[in-house]
Design goal:
single chain, 154 residues, mainly alpha, 5 helices, 78% helix
Length: 154
């Protein structure tokens, strides 16, 4: 019995299985990089389109073209990750600073509320001056006297 064709068939299946497995690992690695970039806030639409193109090429039997696209995709994603991490951290620092400024502003407004309300009240009601009056004259305006029911004649 000649085992040579059977051995050749087994070797061919093993080689194709290893190549397919390696191709799937490449697609999985590219997908993991795309997910990481997406988590960091990068627009990953072009990368996803390239990955879909590579997967469709692999399904149609063009494994060599798919592997080229996947290797380019992985290298492009690896080059984008450091800058994406940097800008993600810059965004976090910006948000923390914004929250700290808002909290400090609220604290200052709370501590200085009486002075602020008083100064606003004086600006609105009296142009920062007290109305005249003097000996024998009321400091309340005539319109206010109507609302205040004085028990004494004026």
């Amino acid at each position: 019995m000649n085992y040579r064709p059977l051995l050749l068939l087994v070797v061919l299946i093993v080689v194709l299985g290893i190549a397919t497995h390696a191709q799937q690992l490449g697609a999985l690695a590219a997908y993991q990089y795309i997910v990481e970039l997406s988590r960091l806030g990068v627009n990953t639409t072009p990368l996803v389109n390239e990955l879909n193109n590579a997967i469709s090429l692999e399904d149609s039997g063009q494994v060599s073209n798919a592997s080229i696209i996947l290797s380019n995709l992985v290298s492009k994603a690896q080059s984008l990750i450091p800058s994406a991490r940097f800008w993600y951290m810059v965004g976090i620092v910006f948000k923390v600073i914004t929250i700290a400024v808002v909290v400090a502003l609220i604290a200052v407004l709370y501590v200085k509320r009486r002075e602020l309300i008083g100064s606003v009240w004086l600006r609105v009601r009296g142009s920062n001056r007290v109305r005249g009056g003097g000996p024998g004259r009321s400091r309340t305006s005539s319109s206010m006297r109507r609302w205040l029911r004085w028990p004494y004649p004026s």
